[in-house]
Amino acid sequence: ALGGNLYIYDDVAVFRPHGLNFGDPTDRIIPIRDITGYKKGFLSIFHIYLNNGKDIKLAVWKKNAIINALEMRRQAIYEQKAPPLLFKP
Question: Rounded to two decimals, what is the model's pTM?
Answer without folding.
Answer: 0.80
